[in-house]
Target: Cytochrome c oxidase subunit 2
Amino acid sequence: MATWKTLTTLDSASPLMEQLLFFHDHTLMILLMITVLVGYIMLTLFFNQFNYRFLLEGQTIEMFWTILPAIILIFIALPSLKLLYLLDEVNNPVVTVKSIGHQWYWSYEYNDFKKVEFDSYMIPKNDLKETTFRLLDVDNRMAVPYDSQIRMLVTAADVLHSWTIPVLSVKIDATPGRLNQVSFLLNRTGIFFGQCSEICGANHSFMPIVMESISMDYFMKWISKMSEI
Model:
């Protein structure tokens, strides 16, 4: 979760997010090199005294400044396309969770198990404890096993919503009458926070998402407990 004075990106919680961070660093280094090169050339133009009034064309330099940007764009496009297809890939899921967006709360259904469905509301300010976060914590957290392939099915009951958890590189629209799908894998335990990322009405800011990543043993115990409620 982002805190005050956090200037860098958040630590990833999934292999796909790691790859996105690597791509971010890769692209940023290319931009840095271009910026330094162009800045150096512009700086030298201010201070040099060279001039040649008979210069009309320079086909060699024109060829270089056409081909070089094309090569740079290829170095950016190839890993970008690879990531694009990896993000859409859906492997064999261990657990399938259906998330339904409402105004203004989320409801979850674990259709692989019997009678496991619940609503997740933001904890009001009056009910906050010392260990809970204002505007981010919920009364019923979603739980998934780590190191397992998870499939999310996302839809909405009323208006457009967007189910988003940044550290997982997951942002998927919840559209009424449409079932969208996303797949991810958590590589560590923890509690991860997200929010609706689609302006969905007056209380859009008050429908947070909290996911708890736990071991498979604890997950099965949690499922057993939830099925008894």
Observations:
- Helices lie at 15-47, 59-88, 216-228.
